[in-house]
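Deliverable D5.2: sample structural annotation.
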Amino acid sequence: MGPKLADGRQSIVLVSDNNFGATQYTQILTLGADLVPTPIPVEATLTKSADNDVFTLKGGSGKPKLQVSLTGRNSNLVNELGVFAVDDATGKIDGIAPGATGYAEKALARGRVILSAISNVPNGFNPNEIGRSLEFADGNNVRFYLVKDSTTDSVISGKTPSSNVIFSSPTTQKVTDLTNSNFTLAFEDGSGAADFQDLVVKIEPSNQALPLGVGLQGKQEGEVLDLRGLSGNVKANFSVNREAAFNNLVGFYKVDDETGRIGNLKPSDAGYAQQAMRQRIAEIDLRVDNQGTAVFDNKQLAGGSILAPFMIANGATIDQVLNNQTNNVYFAYLGANSDKVDHIRLLGNNTFGFEDLASGGDFDYNDVIVRANLTV
């Protein structure tokens, strides 16, 4: 190597010695070169504290992914699994320790929904095939929680009491180390035998990129397809299942931001439902017979947008909604629903379960299930 150049770059000295007897010439050529090291991918890792239920994610080129797979459920309740970041290995949040007053509110404010496990699965739908992917920052410490027979959104809105939030403890969660950074989490919701089979998932680190569309999923009222950052058309293949007496329609409409705003209209504003129908993607009308499976392939979605789902229940029509008959239309945003109840759950990556009865009805969220596979 040669000397450092004035601009800080490293020089390389090449010497050619041409000795042909009578005359000898020595040429020295100095070249400036930018030496850029080749980055070495760092595998994502997941470890559990030996002292408590705190897990730590590292690696993954600074953005480790967590892959969660539903492996079992044995409960009549439709429970929601979530995860939240904590500040240290003891599980504290803003200085508040687990179990202390105010901890649940802090945890849910940071909470990210992983999935819900429905109890009555329609024919043709296998929740164990879906999975859920989430991205974290390098070194994040996380804990898991269960919302018993309700949702994080419903607790935050005040519809469900915070006592329905179950944090991990020796009586509510069992962790099994499967080695190689893989673990099983088995939960007990208190509704039956204490066998830790009410909801069982496998968690593992991943280096795979997140599926298209999931960027907002897991956030508050985040049951949407997030196509921001994509340009051009995005191809969507939809599969639809149903376990319901009602004939329901599911579609998607464009919103302007994460809150569901359309222009100057917030979800809670009068006229929002009508404007949502005007913003809907006309080519996407998803319907299926009871206990059937319908496939809608090669639908084109516009990149750079957020698409939120809606359901029109019990044979109602889009024209009726436009004419201010909004009792049978339901959105991901609780404020837009006439009953202010959560009617859409996240079941996995780009997979949504809908409840078609007013005020939540039987709260089974299997009346329509829509799964989207997105590619560019």
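Annotation notes: Residues 177 and 183 are 5 Å apart (CA to CA). The first strand starts at residue 10 and ends at 19.
The annotation will be released with the project's public dataset once the embargo ends.
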